[in-house]
Amino acid sequence: MSQVTVASLQMISTPDWKANLLEAARLIAEAADRGAKVMLLPEYFCIMGMGDRAKLAIQEPYGEGPIQDFLAQQARQHEVYIIAGTLPIESDQQDRVYNSTLVFDPDGQCMGRYDKIHLFCFNNGRESYNEANTLVAGKTPVVVDLAGLRVGLSVCYDLRFPELYRAMGKLDLIVVPAAFTYTTGKAHWELLLRARAVENQCYVLACGQGGQHENGRRTFGHSMLIDPWGEVLACEKEGAAVVCGVLDTDKIDQVRTSLPALTHRVM
User: Fold this and answer.
1) What 3-state DSSP class applies to 207?
2) Rounded Cα distance, 179 and 50, in Å
3) Does residue 199 have an active-site annotation?
4) Which residues belong to any copy of the CN hydrolase domain (predicted)?
5) Architecture, CATH, for domain 3-259
6) pTM to 2 decimals?
């Protein structure tokens, strides 16, 4: 397959997980109508709670639960691949969960799981976050093969660690579901995304939470598709939206042939 339409489903998730699933279903249907075969939801698509511990109330054991059932049903209904942003998956540590990306195939089967490795910690005196208070860090990079593509899974803060992507080998697509704060997003989001595309000579599909949330947090949005030359092909700044674009593997080959940087690595 040389071309496939991919979509980033930008949301402004709320504390109501059931309402968030309804909104996700609406966006999935719109993306399917526009021909997308691979869809990416944002980090915490299912809940942006009033506090850090809100996610613990809707955690699910891996392989079962209403959120995972919803994702499987949507993938089957629309016959698409869904890369499900992140949702809270149970851990063996009390009061902490994994922030997990699950990948569903068109048969509704979960074909991959990635637990976010790098946990965000930020304090500028006005806003502060420490994900380690409620999350258990993952340990293993994950690549999935879907729709004829090698896809590297990552989440939000992982974007700042290029060695994660190098550990995955040659990729056709990097996905980055996120809930970047407006402060850090305005400074670094597009810069980092384009850098990851250029240095790995592959496409990057990023999906952010994008707007003012009921809990007072403002997320940066700017969901986008970037090609292997670092060009932004599609972007939506804020608000709930479907960001569609075409991934062309011939473009990957062209870039890697004209500038074979990946073959020149010495470290």
Assistant:
1) strand
2) 15
3) no
4) 2-249
5) 4-Layer Sandwich (3.60)
6) 0.96
Tokens at residue 236, please?
Answer: 């939506």
Q: Which amino acid is at 216?
A: G
Q: pLDDT at position 102, please?
A: 98
The reply to whether 207 belongs to the active site is: no
Note the pLDDT of residue 130: 87
Catalytic residue (choose from 43, 60, 131, 236): 43
Q: Residue 125: its pLDDT value, please?
A: 74
Q: Report the half-sphere exposure of 94 (CA within 13 A, side-chain side).
A: 0
* 40-84 tens-digit pLDDT: 999 999 999 998 899 999 999 999 999 999 999 999 999 999 999
Strands 81-83 vs 38-40: parallel, antiparallel or unpaired: parallel
Q: Which residues of the chain have pLDDT under 50?
A: none
46, 55, 60, 116: the catalytic one is 116
The question of whether 37 is a catalytic residue gets the answer: no
Question: Which residue spans within the chain are E strands per DSSP?
Answer: 3-10, 38-40, 81-83, 87-90, 97-104, 110-115, 121-123, 128-130, 135-136, 143-146, 149-153, 173-178, 203-208, 223-226, 232-236, 241-248
- CA 43, 7, 61: angle at the middle one, nearest 5? 35
Residue length of the chain? 267
Domain ranges of the chain: 3-259
User: What is the structure's pLDDT at 244?
Assistant: 98
| Cα 199 from Cα 173, distance rounded (Å) | 12
Closest CA to 68 of 22, 21, 121: 21
pLDDT of residue 1: 57
